Amino acid sequence: MIPKDFSGLYDRLSYTHGREDVFRDFLDVSLFMLSGGTYREDYDRLSISYKENEMEIFIQMLHSVAIHSEGFNDVLGDVFMEHISHGHHGQFFTPIHISDLMAVASGCEALRRGQSEYDPCCGSGRMLLSAVKASTKSDISNRPFCYGSDIDLNCVKMAAVNLLMNTIPGEVAWMDALTLEHWRSYKVELVSVCGVWLPLLSVCGAGDTSLITRIQNTPQVKTAKGMGQLQLSFDF
Fold first, then answer.
1. What is the distance between the alpha carbons of residues 105 and 41, in angstroms, rounded to a whole number?
2. Which has the least CB within 10 A, 84, 92, 143, 174?
3. What is the DSSP string of the chain?
4. Within the chain, what is the greatest distance between any pair of CA atoms?
5. What angle do CA 99, 104, 110 make, to 5 degrees?
6. What are the tens digits of pLDDT across the range 15-40?
């Protein structure tokens, strides 16, 4: 569900800027703010397109998303489906109650710190959120490492924002999960500050990823060529 206060702010910016542009730029503002201002590669261009009061609206939008994302909810995915993808290219994300059920059915409640999980077409990271939600039922501080990848950069950024807001360690790769061609990764590391775990974001360029290495070195990887297709299956 999209919060009403977020929708109102989103509409205000969309009067003078396209909805797709506003959403893309909101993700860049979010990554800049959640990284403590350390990641600004995509953020710096925004001062050219937006006035100071409009940049403040982005901050209010992030505050709204953060509040309504408590409990591992995926607000960004709902916004993306309603205002951006409209189902094009099959970009309908699994309903959250279904992804929660799938996480429990696949044994994610047994995941522990030091273990990892992978969603090769992660979208907004909804399945990863559900997996971590299941793993925290017995221990709220339990955070398995989450790998995600997607060929859509907006989806990659959404997933990275969701990991940051929920203090989940992981790597979200902008890549083709079939060919393993990799362009960029958003990595979230947890650091302890005065006994409190805080997420630290780093962004790496093409080829700088531990995900592909992990896939290639996993004994459970099976490949089958047929009808011009390559199928991959693996268990982290």
1. 40
2. 92
3. ---HHHHHHHHHHHTTS-HHHHHHHHHHHHHHHHTTT---TTTTTHHHHS-HHHHHHHHHHHHHHHHHTTTT--HHHHHHIIIIITTGGG--PPPHHHHHHHHHHTTGGG--BTBEEEETT-TTTHHHHHHHHHHTSS-TT---EEEEEES-HHHHHHHHHHHHHTT--EEEEEE-TTT--EEEEEEEEEEEETTEEEEEEEEE-TT--HHHHHHHT-TT-EEEEETTEEEEE---
4. 56
5. 130
6. 999 999 999 999 999 999 999 998 98
- Give which of 219, 187, 221 is closest to 201, Cα–Cα: 187
First vs last Cα of the chain: how many Å apart?
Answer: 31
- Quick check: 202 and 191 in contact, CB under 8 A? no
Count of residues in the chain = 236
